[in-house]
Design a protein that fits this description.
mainly beta, 8 strands, globular
């Protein structure tokens, strides 16, 4: 992985499901000509242990700001070690408003009723243009 901040799509217009198909969510719909396709591979990815209430911390080196962040968590029963991520596997647990340009952005997220290995899928709509970043995080809910 040479450039994590290259995992974005331009001109999505908020229509994420049309631009990022099932099975390609973690690669941002094969962003950068498929450079990140390995992120869509199910397996025993390293997890971070979190509680059902956690804080999302994002570092924005370029200080893009955000029109919004949408945070989804996989439904109980989804197995990230054997299943590719689909839109139907996700439940929206948090949507934010705008954030001014800054390098450090944090906000609280609540995902009750979860235990075990899950994927947190975050959509970050930058405020400087129609540019959207897609982020998958493997977590273990305690």
């Amino acid at each position: 992985m040479w450039n994590w901040n290259g995992l974005y799509k331009n001109n999505v217009g908020g229509n994420h499901q049309a631009h990022v198909p099932d099975g390609q969510l973690c690669s941002g719909g094969l962003a950068e000509s498929g450079r990140y396709r390995s992120l869509d591979t199910p397996g025993p990815w390293k997890t971070t242990t979190v509680g059902s209430n956690f804080t999302m911390h994002l570092y924005d080196q370029a200080s893009h700001g955000a029109d919004y962040f949408r945070v989804y968590v996989t439904r109980q029963g989804f197995n990230p070690e054997t299943q590719r991520l689909r839109w139907s596997d996700l439940q929206l647990v948090r949507e934010t408003g705008r954030y001014a340009p800054a390098q450090n952005i944090s906000f609280d997220v609540s995902a009750p009723g979860r235990s075990g290995h899950h994927v947190v899928f975050t959509i970050w709509k930058a405020s400087h243009m129609d540019q959207t970043y897609y982020i998958c995080s493997d977590v273990n809910f305690r």
